[in-house]
User: What shape does this take?
Amino acid sequence: MKFAVTTLSPLIEESVSISLFEGTFEERTRKISDAGYDGVELLVRDPSKLNLQQILFTIRKYSLTVAAIGSGLQSSMEGLTLSASESSQRQKAIQRARELISLGAQLGTKIVTIGSFRGKSGDLTLLTDTLASLAKDAEGFSIILAIEPLNRYESSLINTAKEAVNVINAIGSPNVGLLLDTFHMNIEEASWSETIKETKSSLVHVHLGDSNRLAPGLGHIDFETVLTSLAKIGYSGWVSSEHLALPNPDKAGIFGAQTIRPILNQIQCL
Ligand code: LER
Ligand code: MN
Assistant: This one.
């Protein structure tokens, strides 16, 4: 398993609750590397504004890789959702998803997340069709769209791992998989080990956040059980810390790494 953390891509001035580490993009990248992460999950707004060469240069300078493109800012900051009922709005979101897929390929990751970008409510059949058509774009770029169940208070579309797997199976593409986020799982799932075992064949990405959405170790989720369950199914993808930047973005990022890195090291020694 490889270990990443969510942080903003360059040129976003607004503060974002789940962007870890403070400073310029280069300063954040250096701190992420120093804290013991292997990669970054980049939170992106408008991909056309990004200087990709500069991002790649900085990330490589600190021996990191891009774990995933996080799409959550599309709904929270750009007002775009893939389940928008109005066709022109939905088309704008679909176009943006295509840009994120292309961005992911150019930055060398396989994963584009589909979490809150899908919207808070809407028609699941329409969303499934939209994701099926995006899967064809993803195929051309060797990208996997990682569908993330969100807890019931954030969306009425796909709350559980089982619901996500139903959508993934209905689409039937190797370019669509499952993203499990421990914060959402803590609300919606009955068992860490059973859910992870049952979703083995679909699982492509994992978000780590504690029960209160603080850094791992600041709530009551047993991350040893979570990570051991992932190891037992042979999961070799990314576990990406995505949690509130509290008490501040640096402390939260460092604390999360201090909780997770020793468990990963121990598991990898077994
Ligand atoms: C939102 O709660 C979340 O977990 C993000 O990954 C969604 O884009
Ligand atoms: Mn998440």
User: Anything to note?
Assistant: The chain is about 45% helix and 15% strand.
